[in-house]
Design goal:
3 copies of one chain form a homotrimer. In chain A, the strands form 2 sheets. A 5-stranded parallel sheet of chain A has the order 7-6-5-8-9, with helices on both faces. Chain A is built from 9 helices and 9 strands. In chain A, helix 2 links the parallel strand 1 and strand 2. Helices cover about 40% and strands about 15% of the residues of chain A. Chain A has 2 domains: about 10-130 and about 280-310, Rossmann fold (3-Layer(aba) Sandwich); about 130-275, Rossmann fold. Chain A is globular, with a radius of gyration of 20 Å. Chain A starts with 12 loop residues before the first helix and ends with a helix. The first copy, chain A, is of the alpha/beta class and about 300 residues long. Chains A, B, C: Pathway: Pyrimidine metabolism; UMP biosynthesis via de novo pathway; (S)-dihydroorotate from bicarbonate: step 2/3. Chains A, B, C: It is an enzyme of class 2 (transferase). Chains A, B, C: Keywords: Pyrimidine biosynthesis, Transferase. Chains A, B, C: One of its GO terms (biological process) is 'de novo' pyrimidine nucleobase biosynthetic process.
Chain lengths: ~300, ~300, ~300
């Protein structure tokens, strides 16, 4: 039983496949309701449209009450710790929290100290497990399998929450991972997960080309390369797309820097699953929410005992 | 069938009257529900209480799920284009978006490129069609007709979204429009829509006196005139109100600058429909939302085909 | 019939007890719905997690539609008065507003000028009646009575909304109030409400120890004392907690400054009711909302008459 979702590393292959199976059911129109009024909040301490909105829609589709939380006008401004903020939300009656926070592994101050499930929507340069799950779901939807698939991950690997989670999970599930992009944005430790290959070679080999977003906000020394230079050297140009294998697909976590990671004309091309990924994100998040809330409902009697003994 | 609402110019006289008729039904207590869970978002890139709240209440009255969107904490900060933001919301499952944006004609990058309806809640100095419709509705509610009515529009005409929309629509419907206010805030091009008349003459002639808000935030050279001077020269003073025709009414899009456009004591006087306009705004917006969502429901099969072929 | 809740001073002992009784029913699982769609908004012009979220959950539990209101992006920025903002919300169809505002007695510009109930969620250094009610509820829940109870209030009494409300209400209900903390943060006028006692003496005497939050944001001359010094002189240290009476409890409105007002290790100790207070806050706010909305429903016909005569 999934009690929290903080890192893809913690998840068994079977747990991952269970989530994907449930997501598929939701994509096909299955409905699930808790059977009672349940409350969640999305605590986003970093800017986000996609992920926050995706969780919000997933929550509403499950009939949950979504309690607004604005980091910018919260008591965090009065110096309250994240632990005390979440503990407060628990006392007020929330049944789960979704958190994005700039601190790596922020969740360590919460797990086992807070009595409600925590879903990690991104921690610093660490994990982003629901993005990973929606990537996996999109691949599974396309190919029906992971075994033997060749997946190329390209770009700002060192700063990417997505690269780490995806590479690990894909290997767990039997896919073969390769990396490309600027060598100075790669790290040796990734070599255990997959080979580093020049971009022009990679595009011809892979079934799935996962482009990562250049996180301008995390780079100081960007001056070294213009956007146009990046595009020519490591981006998916129109020319490179033509050399991709039949049936191969393009993915990107978005927001896209048009003309940098990918030519603007390719964003909605036939191979692109970029907007499909967003659509799938809702179903995957519904599946995750369902799992942790079912756990919550099961543990509820125990929780109440714990609360009243306090 | 109304697919979007971006400008009053695009609307036929009959389309306008149809919206007003539906708004009247909602004012009388009629209810409408989509028959399924539908999602909308209000994207306000400029400050607003009235319009945003009015849409929100209208949406809730129709049983819609309103997905929060904070421009200030969205991926727009990461440089995402408006098109990509709205395209994202479409992928995530939204059924319509309401947008206020500081750029004139921002909607041109969306219409026919996005597959969900766009309702314009104000673009730069351009259009503000739902404000226009609520003004029309308030006039119709009062007089039961437009033909032969004399409507005076006073104030900051050059910078006013409302003035342009209203003047055009009123003429379409048979009313006679006149303008007043500081001559330097008027533009020749408006003379085709109606005469420019001194304020002291105007107040005695009109059935409807529409005062516009001085948009302090859009004027640099305001120093030329104090607020008190404006009030004496172009405002509705207590003295001028006494000279208005029997049965004539006062309108203002609000927020009111008390003591500038209108004497503070007149804001809630018997002639004033200022707060009535706000009440009516909800019914008019319900009517617009109903129309575009009915269009959406009709087109849904086609849309789904389009999405899956991608 | 409670029409507004702005100050605990306005409330009769019986009115207070009625709210507490209703809160108890909600804590025991009683449900209440208005029987029709009703709209509320929470206008928080000052940062808050606890109070805003608590109201939001209370409102959802009563099935109310909560209309988002962001002070930072509202027309208040365009210079609109609080009166005109709330009058606008009334026109748009809201049935009640909850307001926190930095101005003392901000509500005087609203009461009897606005036709919908106002619930005060904190005004400047003035009142914070729902915090007071939840404190009372927590005490009643613990001891079943107020008569003869000794309650100590410690800390930043001069700047505390809570201290004023609580001291008054507790005396009304028969409890005995004492104060402690830095003498320069105390004011003579409070002596009529209760004695000033050294902290080391106080902890041994009281049944309820109410610690107040040091409002760093309201103190300029804080340099005079370090946090550690405050803790040693006026805080609840581990040593002092050991000398508290059997069965006595610790309360704090939160957010807690750990290691200042109270040792971090005591925040969730057996005596602590800090998180219980938050839990109770929801039930008390449900009770308040129910009362004012019942009043609203009763007055509705009258209100409508008033609106249409305008």
């Amino acid at each position: 039983m999934l009690r929290n979702l903080v890192s893809i590393k913690d998840m068994h292959k079977d747990e991952i496949l269970l989530i994907l199976m449930q997501a598929k059911k939701f994509a096909q129109g299955e409905q699930w309701h808790a059977g009672k009024q349940m409350f969640v909040a999305n605590l986003f301490f970093e800017a986000s449209t996609r992920t926050k909105t995706s969780f919000e829609v997933a929550e509403r589709k499950l009939g949950l009450e979504v309690i607004p939380f604005e980091a910018g006008s919260s008591s965090v401004l009065k110096g309250e710790t994240l632990h005390d903020t979440v503990r407060t939300l628990e006392s007020i009656g929330l049944d789960a929290v979704v958190i994005r926070h700039e601190a790596d592994r922020y969740y360590e101050q919460l797990i086992n100290k807070i009595n409600i499930p925590v879903i990690n929507a991104g921690d610093g340069c660490g994990q982003h497990p629901t993005q990973c799950l929606l990537d996996l779901f999109t691949i599974q939807q396309e190919f029906g399998r992971f075994d033997g698939l060749k997946v190329g991950i390209v770009g700002d690997i060192r700063h990417s929450r997505v690269a780490r989670s995806d590479a690990e999970a894909l290997r767990k599930l039997g896919a073969e991972v390769r990396f490309s992009g600027p060598p100075e944005w790669f790290e040796e430790e990734y070599l255990s997960a997959g080979e580093f290959v020049p971009m022009d070679k990679l595009v011809e080999e892979v079934d799935v080309l996962m482009l990562l977003r250049i996180q301008h906000e995390r780079h100081d020394s960007e001056a070294e390369m213009t956007k146009e230079q990046y595009h020519q050297m490591y981006g998916l140009t129109e020319e490179r797309e033509k050399r991709m294998k039949t049936g191969s697909i393009i993915m990107h976590p978005a927001p896209v820097n048009r003309g940098v990671e990918i030519a603007s004309s390719l964003v909605e091309c036939e191979r692109s699953r970029i907007f499909k990924q967003m659509e799938n994100g809702v179903f995957v998040r519904m599946a995750v929410l369902k799992q942790v809330l079912e756990g919550r409902l099961t543990n509820e009697l125990a929780n109440q005992k714990w609360q009243y003994s306090c």
